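Amino Acid Chain and Its Fold in Token Form
===========================================
Structure side: the spatial fold of the chain, written down as a series of whole-number tokens.
Position: the record begins directly beneath this header, with no further notes in between.
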Amino acid sequence: MKAKGSLAAPLFFVSLALACAGSRLGTVLPWALSALALTATGWAGATQARAGSWIAVAVFGFALLVALNTLFTSPAYTPAGLYHPLLLALAFVAFRRFDDVAERRGAIAALALGAILAAWGLAQIGFLGVARAHALFETPATYAAVINLLLVPLLALVLCGERRASLLGIGVLLAAALFAADSRGGLIALAAGLGAAIVLSLRAKALHRRSVLIVLGVLAAGWILAAGFRTSGPEAPPTADERAASSVSRLELYDLSWHAWLERPLAGSGYLTFRYLLEQGRSRVPSYGDSGETWFVHNDYLQTLQELGPLGLAALLALAWLPALLAHRRLTALPVADRPITLACASAVTAMSCHALVDFPYYIPVCLLLCGALLGSLDRRLGGGRQLTAVAAPAPPWYRAARAALAVLATVVLVRPLAAEAAADWGLRRSAAGQSQSAAFWLEAARRLDGADWRYHWYAGQFWDGQAADSGKREAARFAAEAFAAGFAANPLEVKNLLGKISVHRRHGKLLDAPAGPGTLAAWIAQAEALAPLSGAVRRERALLGAAK
């Protein structure tokens, strides 16, 4: 059992690293591998079975709602809607079943990864001339959110009297990384997390006055370290005018999201559909111009209301704020030894919840994973549980059958997008290598494996469109038209497949058995203009249709 438990920390480190990569790449493979490593983490470190709790209801309720919306309600299916909540739930289950030793090892693994990310960010501003550190992430805001999920609980423990030199040293490094990111949302989250930690530590009678000075010293040392690394490079830090413009831009995004919710106030527009709404309503967001792109409102609560409706917002509010409320209510009833970890976890979740007011941490896989782990540790102390026994009572046959059926169904649902992505990637590689027959097989296989994902129809449509242009074969033109039509049917908010269909009928009409007439093409381009009125691609297609008349 001891050898088994010792695997939990390296497996958790691997899971976190893969989630970080998935947060940047936005592809299924790192998400799936992270989930697999996280499952193995839970298996390696589990020593307790847990009873139900309100935190568990919030976690599983939110995860299930996002997954069901993705599968059955949203007009724009995305595998992110399956894997994002999966990482949250798996991390929660793993850490709520850990004992103190496995939990400590998992925390050390997380801090080790945080130290690597912090050093990476400092190297960026110190040696690469980057203005704002972001490590491997796409934005400094995401980087700051990840750092805060490690820094805030560490500082909360320091407030409760933890003064080990190694922990303080990592705290200085993480604080330096946060200042190097220069994220206003990250600094607001840090202040909120520390505020929550002070309130909870006062309630638990665990606050050491000298520790407040130590925390301030850690933050001051971090700021000095970040300032020492910062050099004048090709990238200049944002000016005051640029920061003000960024704030105005977010207000425009808020306005767009709010009006989009008013159009569908009950069901919402669907998980991760805001990007499409931005294309439709760019006139409301002039700061983004004709081509600026974002998937996020920069307010997770407003975006969740717009995408999942009031029920989704209620689920997110419970996930974000219920832990701190429960911790405040039950803290004094806990054993003294459990109070520091409890308030540390609650403070970190509070920091992320405040950051979600101005950024998008609840849409980032690694943030969801870390949040799930913190919630699991918190729930292990606030909820009830029992030790696993050597001989467990056998479950009823119907329960075992239902559990097996659900496991098979979940596996099929999760494996399909992974297999489709692998097939599409291989097909695109074969196409680039000039192996058309192999490329056709794998691209068509991807469409059939996960036909709800518009991307695979688009890949196949582009391939067959190229084949039709090169060979003049009627079958290639027909396959291209069918693929683009299927892609637009799969996601009627995405304009790319509609433009592809218009282009095929315009350019290869003579090869098609039933080419679209001028009236149909005009209706299609009007539909495309409604989806993306300021898109340069739509304008070009409109001009080409006009020239073809």
Residues 397-432 form the longest helix (36 residues). The CA atoms of residues 420 and 449 lie 5 Å apart. The chain has two domains: 2-235+330-386, 397-548.
